[in-house]
Amino acid sequence: MASSNDNKSTEGGFQDGNSDPNDEETNELCPGFKDVDAFVKYGLGAVLSATKASAGLPQAGDDYDFYRSFPGFQEFCESQGDKLLHLMSQIMQHHGCRSHMRDRNKLTGLEERFDLVVDSNDTILERAGILLDEADGVNRSQQPVMPAGFQPPKIVVSSWNRKGSGSGSRPETFRLLHAKNVARPQLKFKEKVDNSNTPFIPKIFIKPNATKPLPSYFTNKQIRKERPEDLDVPAALADFIHQQRTQEHVEDMFAHPYQYELDHFTTPENLLSKPEVQMYKPMAETKCSFIDTLEDLVALNEKLCKLSEFAVDLEHHSYRSFLGLTCLMQISTREEDFIIDTLELRSEMYILNEAFTDPATVKVFHGADSDIEWLQKDFGLYVVNLFDTHQASRALNLARHSLDHLLKHFCNVDSDKRYQLADWRIRPLPDEMVQYARTDTHYLLYIYDSMRAQLLEFHHGQPGLLQSVWNKSKDISLKKYLKPIFTEESYLELQRKQKKSFNTQQLTAFRLLFAWRDKLARQEDESTGYVLPTHMMSKISEELPKEPQGIIACCNPVPPLVRQQVNELHLLVQQAREMPLLKVSKDGCQQWAYVLSLETKSDQTSLSVAHMKASRIIESFENPFRMVRGDSLKGGGKKRERVASEVGESTPKPSKKLMKSADKPQKTEPPSQESFTPFDYSQSDLSVFAGTKSKSNTQFDPNRQAPDFKKKKSNFGAGNRSMSYMAGKSERGFRHNWPKR
Ligand code: AMP
Ligand code: MN
Ligand code: ZN
């Protein structure tokens, strides 16, 4: 205010805002300045002196009232105030924000004006953030790379995963979601995706190349068939029934189906000695087959079973699905390339287990960590005898370990990784994408030969280094897919990553929004990032907008589901605002102890009981925090454990090819839910706070993948509704550690 008086620079600074934004575009970026830096320096100086000057104004309560009694001072304040409000309105208009700053009839309260300024600042800063990101090469809107001229089909549907109750009597209601959608492949899946908040159970129901037979849980249709979700009985009873049925099988249900075979696998001698490096065939002279029928897949499997090695890669899509979808499998032999449409053959892919688990055939992958998980998640496929060229690259200490680098280094091939993040759901697959996908496996067997040769040379013919690569690869094939599990504490882990200290209201909002987006993402089969990106969720929690419009203002671009459910979100934010506001303490524990004791007190029955509860809560909160913060426990839930009883167990050794395709049993139903029922959060024990230490030792812990049965027999309730699971990694995406490419 005063600055416009004594500081010309401020006026100059505002001039741009003052002029009509339409004729602002001159040739010079910042008229009168030699470059952007000079302009920024000048602008910062102006802002600084304006801030100083305004801080120097008499404060309300001290001299202000005295000065205010002079009409001259009053007039001056009014005119300067008007001028400022006008300038602010113009800036806000320029940015397309609500801008009734000066209109005193419409808005009276200072508070509302303040909110307007806050909203506008957010919008402007968010836009600046996006532009900076774009300049940095990050594209937040995540538009997939499309080949030039490609027009995705305009099929737009949602709520696909809802149970078609009344079987056909009522038409499905599809809602329009997004204009640029690709057809949702999930619609055509024979088995619906299981997004329920229950741990992943292997999809396997037939086990080729077994030296230890598949446990009866997987072969017995009766045990698997009915999940609690399907039973038309109260939840608790359904849980109980399911628990009784599965009790004896818990150990098997979460073990790696090929743990025994992998534990007993030793790399054949010939793979530890000097290889004959076989040159790849030029791509142009190589036959490439697109496999999208069962017949072709069976033929491919038979072909692969005769080989001593083949290369594999997968392409995956994770934005428009909760658990992600494996869209493509590329396989290269020494002679041919194959592209399998795994969206089409999703339910049949399991037949490849015969080749994939054959210990006599090497499967070469590059950076197989994610692939191993995706194979289990989508197809129930496992790999025995894996060679990971990414691990080999590490052992060889190459400059970089990406596939592009290996292609350049060993084959002098320039690859274009532009399509890596393409939308692999697109069908028919454009030629450019097929070409890209082929390149990922076409040269891999030659690279495998070359790397083995080098690994031996490195150690003067000693197999130690090469053996270490085989061992590391085996460890990767022992990885188990873990489903993201929502727990009452999952949000805390994510919130901590935001590097923002939240007060109790903000933290409550974050918790409620986190639960909302998890529930919706599972229901609609969308990624949580699609439903509500974390940075927006964090922003809404920080701002706690008073009105639905304020929630929209926190999001740019506004996610379709946020727009659709903005009133729902608004209620959640209101609920958070009703929390007692407490100063942020550096120690989250302490802060939560406050909140918890307050929540407990709010339903007072007797104070002493409340006190007891509060202290119990505080005790119970020690663990989750240690778990999240303590380094020793990092990823503890994910630790690969071997089931002790399996090792050294004497089992009858069936002949190697126990289940050749010829004597495969008739296809039993795979272990998936026929009907998906979204998790009923309303029944969840939303306040572990209440102190009723809910049967903690009978709770199933989904993050413990190989339970320690020696110590305690665990009761399993797959449909466990109380959700008092232990904290664990659940924010999907964070689990992925993309190998450098
Ligand atoms: P690739 O093995 O390089 O073909 O990658 C396989 C799949 O991993 C791709 O289809 C993507 O879905 C995913 N992916 C690869 N790199 C990244 C990355 N940097 N960020 C996110 N997803 C990735
Ligand atoms: Mn890959
Ligand atoms: Zn690939």
From TrEMBL:
<keyword id="KW-0234">DNA repair</keyword>
<keyword id="KW-0479">Metal-binding</keyword>
<dbReference type="GO" id="GO:0071038">
    <property type="term" value="P:TRAMP-dependent tRNA surveillance pathway"/>
</dbReference>
<feature type="region of interest" description="Disordered">
    <location>
        <begin position="1"/>
        <end position="28"/>
    </location>
</feature>
<keyword id="KW-0694">RNA-binding</keyword>
<dbReference type="InterPro" id="IPR049559">
    <property type="entry name" value="Rrp6p-like_exo"/>
</dbReference>
<dbReference type="InterPro" id="IPR012588">
    <property type="entry name" value="Exosome-assoc_fac_Rrp6_N"/>
</dbReference>
<dbReference type="GO" id="GO:0005730">
    <property type="term" value="C:nucleolus"/>
</dbReference>
<dbReference type="InterPro" id="IPR045092">
    <property type="entry name" value="Rrp6-like"/>
</dbReference>
<dbReference type="Pfam" id="PF00570">
    <property type="entry name" value="HRDC"/>
</dbReference>
<dbReference type="GO" id="GO:0000176">
    <property type="term" value="C:nuclear exosome (RNase complex)"/>
</dbReference>
<dbReference type="GO" id="GO:0071040">
    <property type="term" value="P:nuclear polyadenylation-dependent antisense transcript catabolic process"/>
</dbReference>
<feature type="domain" description="HRDC">
    <location>
        <begin position="503"/>
        <end position="583"/>
    </location>
</feature>
<protein>
    <recommendedName>
        <fullName>Exosome complex component 10</fullName>
    </recommendedName>
</protein>
<dbReference type="GO" id="GO:0071044">
    <property type="term" value="P:histone mRNA catabolic process"/>
</dbReference>
<dbReference type="GO" id="GO:0000175">
    <property type="term" value="F:3'-5'-RNA exonuclease activity"/>
</dbReference>
<dbReference type="GO" id="GO:0000166">
    <property type="term" value="F:nucleotide binding"/>
</dbReference>
<keyword id="KW-0832">Ubl conjugation</keyword>
<dbReference type="GO" id="GO:0019219">
    <property type="term" value="P:regulation of nucleobase-containing compound metabolic process"/>
</dbReference>
<dbReference type="GO" id="GO:0071039">
    <property type="term" value="P:nuclear polyadenylation-dependent CUT catabolic process"/>
</dbReference>
<keyword id="KW-0597">Phosphoprotein</keyword>
<feature type="compositionally biased region" description="Polar residues">
    <location>
        <begin position="1"/>
        <end position="20"/>
    </location>
</feature>
<dbReference type="GO" id="GO:0000467">
    <property type="term" value="P:exonucleolytic trimming to generate mature 3'-end of 5.8S rRNA from tricistronic rRNA transcript (SSU-rRNA, 5.8S rRNA, LSU-rRNA)"/>
</dbReference>
<dbReference type="InterPro" id="IPR012337">
    <property type="entry name" value="RNaseH-like_sf"/>
</dbReference>
<dbReference type="GO" id="GO:0006281">
    <property type="term" value="P:DNA repair"/>
</dbReference>
<feature type="region of interest" description="Disordered">
    <location>
        <begin position="629"/>
        <end position="741"/>
    </location>
</feature>
<dbReference type="GO" id="GO:0071051">
    <property type="term" value="P:poly(A)-dependent snoRNA 3'-end processing"/>
</dbReference>
<keyword id="KW-0378">Hydrolase</keyword>
<dbReference type="InterPro" id="IPR002562">
    <property type="entry name" value="3'-5'_exonuclease_dom"/>
</dbReference>
<keyword id="KW-0269">Exonuclease</keyword>
<dbReference type="GO" id="GO:0003727">
    <property type="term" value="F:single-stranded RNA binding"/>
</dbReference>
<dbReference type="GO" id="GO:0071036">
    <property type="term" value="P:nuclear polyadenylation-dependent snoRNA catabolic process"/>
</dbReference>
<feature type="compositionally biased region" description="Polar residues">
    <location>
        <begin position="669"/>
        <end position="686"/>
    </location>
</feature>
<comment type="subunit">
    <text>Component of the RNA exosome complex. The catalytically inactive RNA exosome core complex (Exo-9) associates with the catalytic subunit EXOSC10/RRP6 (via its N-terminus). Exo-9 may associate with DIS3 to form the nucleolar exosome complex, or DIS3L to form the cytoplasmic exosome complex. The RNA exosome complex interacts with cofactors C1D/RRP47, MPHOSPH6/MPP6 and MTREX/MTR4. Interacts with MTREX; the interaction with MTREX mediates the association of MTREX with nuclear RNA exosomes.</text>
</comment>
<dbReference type="GO" id="GO:0046872">
    <property type="term" value="F:metal ion binding"/>
</dbReference>
<keyword id="KW-0540">Nuclease</keyword>
<dbReference type="InterPro" id="IPR010997">
    <property type="entry name" value="HRDC-like_sf"/>
</dbReference>
<feature type="compositionally biased region" description="Polar residues">
    <location>
        <begin position="693"/>
        <end position="702"/>
    </location>
</feature>
<keyword id="KW-0698">rRNA processing</keyword>
<dbReference type="GO" id="GO:0071035">
    <property type="term" value="P:nuclear polyadenylation-dependent rRNA catabolic process"/>
</dbReference>
<dbReference type="Pfam" id="PF08066">
    <property type="entry name" value="PMC2NT"/>
</dbReference>
<dbReference type="InterPro" id="IPR036397">
    <property type="entry name" value="RNaseH_sf"/>
</dbReference>
